[in-house]
Design a protein that fits this description.
- The complex is a heterotrimer of chains A (259), B (382) and C (328).
- Chain A is built from 6 helices and 13 strands.
- In chain A, the strands form 2 sheets. Chain A has a 9-stranded mixed beta sheet with strand order 9-8-7-10-6-1-4-5-11, with helices on both faces. A two-stranded antiparallel sheet of chain A has the order 2-3.
- The longest helix of chain A has 16 residues.
- Helices cover 28% and strands 29% of the residues of chain A.
- Chain A folds into 2 domains: 207 residues, HUPs (Rossmann fold), CATH 3.40.50; 30 residues.
- Chain B is of the alpha+beta class and 382 residues long.
- Chain B is 53% helix and 15% strand.
- Chain B has 10 helices and 10 strands.
- In chain B, α1 runs parallel beside α3 and α3 crosses α6.
- The relative contact order of chain B is 0.12.
- The radius of gyration of chain C is 21 Å and the shape is elongated.
- Chain C is α/β, with parallel strands linked by helices.
- The chains are: A alpha/beta (259), B alpha+beta (382), C alpha/beta (328).
- At the A-B interface, α2 and α5 of A face α1 of B.
- The structure holds flavin-adenine dinucleotide (2 copies).
- The site of one flavin-adenine dinucleotide has 23 residues of chain B, from β1, β3, α9 and α10.
Chain lengths: 259, 382, 328
């Protein structure tokens, strides 16, 4: 099976966010970029499928500026991806997620793909638009918020649970399709040191995003950090009952979060 | 030209070590210290990830890193637990004599099967009668045909109870002093080899340390490293390679102490404000930060010197000596920053002091390092 | 852009879902007169839900009765929504609900050539364009984004907007002509539906109160304390990864970086330390309350209210107090 995994470099979770000059975006100066959380799960899922299905290949693909995009692709290779393609961002600046999807679709269309795996959303912009846009652009069915993805060799179909606001839906789908993964249960592996060293020498294919991308339809205008949290107002009490009464009173009368 | 930036490769190695330290080591550090416990499962994972035989070339199944990369990794590991780090890097120490003095055939025979799986090795130099004065060691190696017979006792040997391979320094004739010292590779299975009980230690309690006894242990001549009498210089050259990573280990402990102290100072209130706003505490933190920074740079410089092919005796002695003194001082100041809480075992900083102490003692006590530094220094003036 | 606004109706338990109603109030606040508010529902028996639109001032509802939609992928639904938008001459599409919204927006961006945004918590007109605000970085920052063009589609974040007041009208209900669906889209099959967690209580995604337990709860059995408090509050139950990793509760309970993101009115963290990976899943909650025995736990830095104490004493007392107050 030819598995394409779309991965995105995002600031690591511990990053202290700062506003860039201009006020519209994150200040990326000095920020360390890593593989986005759900993408890491998606890559792990791809590797598990590859291990279960002889002859499969995992192709990691990422859109973005240097050097962070190249770094996450090398990280993917160190984890076990067979091939890596860097869809070069025409500018380093923030673009509309739909443009990203168009750029990725252009590259994916040119390579074999039985399954296109993405994280359901990235931890930075949290847009979650890429899987469904890829489905539309590649004329494939897509499924977002998928957990528990399995391949059934008997029926030659994927079986999975799609997590919805109301609960979940069980699905079966044949290849090719696009899947946006949301899964907490697979424990992404850690790359081994020798594989990290080998990944430094791996060939990264470059795919120009192309000048013919339509213009961005949305544009960031502001990036605001919440006022620093002052810390919790701690409730003083002499007995658990008193603590409970005080909290319930505050929640009803001051915070007004329940009647 | 000076360049203090890390390459992308170096950063990714450091990230790996940091992730392992945070997720696998740190959560168990307090428990392994308290019990004490030798967390073999963690050491196995370190091996699986390639964090164990750092200095062994890739061809022999190791990671093939230079001293600089090893230092980056060791500092990160030590930030989580000094004791575990000592046990993780003990193989580097024990295998270095084979790398330095082994024939290609010996390297093939000893290193390949050893590195292919999780295995521990121990470096057996120190003896009960003396560690600093290694030239006077007493363990005897008597030649009998195509074998040597080893008799004697080693002490304070890291990982000895769990090791499958020992590099042993013994003398063929005490009268020859350093010229009689010869190195051997001895497997755990050798008849007459035994290890003592785990020592009860002040710090590094996740590591294990014991005596190793040799009672008429027969070692084939083929398992001798280098010539008769070549052992002393092999041991010294080994320590030239591994001393700098001890500087990195000390730096990791110092950085952890600074991290704990700074974070605590922002939270702890006295006289109506966080203690971080009292100048006495700020000065403390500033001095700690200077020590940590200097320790790291000296370590990096020594590693860089050695990786360029120089012996680096002076540089590595300075780095090890300074960084270990800094670690003790910074850990001490961290406890002081915590006040009474720092003295309690429930808080992480008193362990750092106990762990830091060892770095002044092993792999050449700091008194010996200073002797070496003075000797190298004065040579330039004589 | 002041033309008609199409509101996508999501149906839950036979009624328009809470997030759909919130979408209606956004449409009204954007200046939509009843004549410009257009509803959409899918499914073979959607007449009653179509009528519900009328209660809140939506005067025209397009119904997609194609029975294949009951079990077809979202792609098919997106086709019908685009068709309805075209019929209605809509300039804006609003979807409430996160999962559905995310999956529709990428499709509509291409097929309906729309500027799109998800997870929107504020919307206002900005000349001919729309300006939206949306929490990003797990609620650690807020982005303002301008959406241009003749078509805009927005997925709104649940609980960010009020429910609409009644403004009854008698809606015109019209069936959409069937749209040919590509065969490939109909091949995948939905083989079942699961309601969340034992069917009790609301689901994490749309609950207005979430009570989450962490490692401090210590055992799978003790986790019932958290569930009893949630039941008393009518809340959904969440957990930290420490809990799901230990297998005390299934991974569907996990809130955080690799679990679910929630943004309820009230988030109660019980025995949770507040690791950054947990925080990014709940920071955009309106009010955060922490119960933890360790006064220095990072959770207290982000919480609005805190009780430093033993959860085994505090939580039962709190459950009793909530029950008492609710019974009044
Ligand atoms: C936890 C632990 C793990 C160890 N692991 C190993 C291991 O794996 N393999 C191994 O071979 N050894 C190991 N050692 C031994 C360690 O290297 C020695 O303890 C160290 O070299 C000092 O030797 P000693 O203890 O015999 O002290 P001594 O040599 O007796 O020294 C006592 C004191 O006198 C000072 N001193 C000695 N000679 C001089 C001098 N000429 N001038 C000035 N001062 C001097 C020393 O600095 C020290 O302060 C370990 C030790 C410990 C505690
Ligand atoms: C890549 C990655 C992704 C991750 N994703 C997630 C994620 O999606 N979600 C997530 O939650 N975590 C995630 N984590 C894990 C996260 O880092 C933390 O380990 C986890 O959130 C800790 O859970 P906890 O707060 O329940 O446990 P702990 O950190 O152990 O905290 C337990 C708390 O309970 C308190 N406590 C103990 N006993 C009592 C008592 N009797 N009364 C009151 N309080 C008590 C303690 O003081 C402590 O603060 C992720 C980690 C990584 C590396």
């Amino acid at each position: 099976m030819e598995i394409v995994v779309c991965i995105k470099p995002v600031p690591e979770a511990e990053t202290r966010l700062r506003v860039a000059p201009g006020g519209a975006t994150l200040d990326a100066e000095g920020v360390k970029f890593v593989l986005a959380g759900y993408d890491e799960s998606a890559l792990e899922q791809a590797l598990l499928l590859k291990e279960a299905l002889a002859g499969s290949k995992v192709h990691a693909i990422s859109f973005g500026p240097a050097p962070r995009t190249e770094e996450v692709l090398r990280a993917a290779v160190a984890l076990g991806a067979d091939l890596a393609t860097w869809v070069e961002s025409p500018s380093g600046s923030a673009v509309d997620p739909i443009q990203v999807a168009r750029a990725l679709a252009g590259a994916i269309a040119a390579i074999p793909h039985d399954l296109v795996l993405c994280g359901k959303q990235a931890g930075d912009d949290e847009a979650g638009l890429v899987p469904s846009a890829l489905g539309e652009l590649l004329a494939l069915p897509d499924f977002g918020s998928v957990v528990d993805l399995r391949w059934d060799p008997v029926t030659a179909r994927f079986k999975f649970l799609r997590s919805t606001d109301a609960g979940g839906e069980r699905w079966e789908a044949a290849t090719p399709c696009v899947i946006g993964l949301q899964q907490a249960w697979n424990d992404p592996r850690t790359a081994k040191l020798p594989n990290i060293l080998k990944s430094r020498k791996a060939a990264i294919a470059k795919h120009p995003a192309g000048p013919d991308l339509p213009g961005a339809r949305s544009e960031p205008q502001g990036f605001e950090l919440p006022a620093p949290r002052t810390g919790a107002r701690l409730i003083e009490y002499k007995s658990p009952q008193e603590a409970a009464q005080t909290l319930v009173r505050i929640l009803r009368e001051e915070a007004k979060v329940f009647p | 030209m000076a360049d203090f930036s890390l390459s992308a490769e170096q950063e990714s190695l450091r990230d790996l070590a940091r992730k392992f330290a945070r997720t696998e080591m740190a959560p168990h550090a307090a428990e392994c210290d308290r019990t004490p416990r030798f967390p073999e499962e963690i050491y196995r994972k370190a091996f699986d990830l390639g964090l164990m035989n750092l200095n062994v070339p890739v061809d022999y199944g190791g990671s093939g890193l230079g001293v600089f990369e090893a230092c980056l990794i060791v500092e990160e590991l030590a930030h989580a637990c000094g004791g575990m780090t000592t046990s993780v890097i003990a193989n580097c120490l024990a295998l270095e004599p084979i790398l330095l003095g082994g024939t290609p055939e010996q390297k093939d025979r000893f290193l390949k099967p050893f590195c292919a799986e999780y295995n521990l090795a121990s470096f057996c130099l120190t003896e009960p009668s003396g560690g600093s004065d290694a030239g006077s060691l007493k363990t005897r190696a008597r030649r009998e045909g195509d074998h040597y017979i080893l008799d004697g006792e080693k002490c304070f040997i890291t990982n000895a109870p769990h090791a499958s391979l020992y590099t042993v320094f013994a003398t063929i004739d005490p009268a020859l002093k350093t010229k009689g010292i010869t190195a051997f590779v001895v497997p755990r299975s050798a008849v007459g080899l035994s290890t003592g009980k785990d020592e009860e230690k002040m710090g590094h309690r996740a590591s294990s340390t014991s005596t190793v006894r040799f009672e008429g242990v027969s070692v084939p001549v083929a398992d001798r490293l280098g010539e008769e009498g070549a052992g002393f210089s092999m041991a010294m050259r080994t320590l030239d390679q591994t001393r700098t990573p001890i500087g990195a280990l000390a730096t990791g402990i110092a950085q952890a102490a600074l991290d704990h102290a700074a974070a605590y100072s922002l939270k702890r209130q006295s006289f109506g404000k966080p203690i971080s706003e009292h100048q006495a505490i700020q000065i403390k933190l500033a001095n700690m930060a200077q020590s940590v920074h200097a320790a790291r740079l000296l370590t990096w410089h020594a590693a860089w010197t050695i990786d360029r092919g120089a012996k680096g005796t002076l540089e590595s002695s300075i780095a090890k000596c300074f960084a270990s003194d800094a670690a003790l001082h910074v850990a001490d100041e961290a406890i002081q920053t915590f006040g009474g809480y720092g003295y309690m075992k429930e808080y992480p900083v008193e362990k750092l002091l106990r762990d830091a102490k060892l770095t002044q003692i092993y792999e050449g006590a700091n008194e010996i390092q200073r002797t070496v530094i003075a000797r190298e220094l004065l040579r330039q003036y004589a | 852009m002041t033309g008609p606004i199409l509101i996508v109706g999501e149906v839950q338990n036979g009624h328009l879902s809470g997030p759909t109603l919130e979408a209606i109030s956004v449409a009204r606040s954007l200046g939509g007169s009843p004549s410009s508010l257009v509803g959409f529902v899918a499914g073979h028996d959607s007449r009653s839900t179509a009528l519900e639109f009328g209660r809140f001032g939506v005067s025209h509802v397009w119904v997609a009765r194609d029975p294949t939609l009951d079990s077809a992928p979202i792609a098919a639904l997106a086709l019908y929504i685009a068709a309805a938008a075209t019929k209605a001459g809509a300039e804006t599409i609003l979807v409430g609900g996160t999962t559905l919204g995310r999956d529709l927006m990428g499709r509509l961006a291409i097929r309906w050539n729309a500027a799109v945004a998800t997870g929107v918590t504020e919307v206002r007109r900005d000349g001919a364009a729309l300006q939206v605000r949306r929490p990003i970085f797990g609620g650690r920052a807020t982005e303002t984004r301008r959406l241009d063009g003749a078509h805009v589609a927005l997925a709104l974040r649940p609980h960010a907007f009020p429910a609409p007041l009644d403004a009854p009208v008698d809606p015109v209900i019209e069936d959409l002509p069937s749209v040919p669906l590509p065969a490939a889209w109909l091949a995948p099959r939905r083989t079942g539906t699961e309601t969340s967690a034992e069917g009790a209580g609301p689901s994490l995604g749309d609950a207005s109160i979430v009570v989450s337990g962490g490692r401090g709860v210590r055992t799978a059995e003790n986790f019932q304390l958290v569930e009893e408090l949630a039941a008393a509050l009518g809340a959904a139950v969440g957990a930290s990864r420490a809990v799901t990793d230990a297998g005390w509760r299934p991974s569907s309970y996990q809130v955080g970086q690799t679990g679910r993101s929630v943004s309820p009115q009230l988030y109660l963290a019980v025995g949770i330390s507040g690791a950054i990976q947990h925080l990014v899943g709940m920071l955009s909650s309106r009010v955060i309350v922490a119960i933890n025995s360790d006064a220095s736990a990072p959770i207290f830095r982000v919480a609005d209210y805190g009780i430093v104490g033993d959860l085994f004493q505090i939580v039962p007392a709190l459950t009793a107090e909530v029950r008492r107050v609710r019974a009044l």
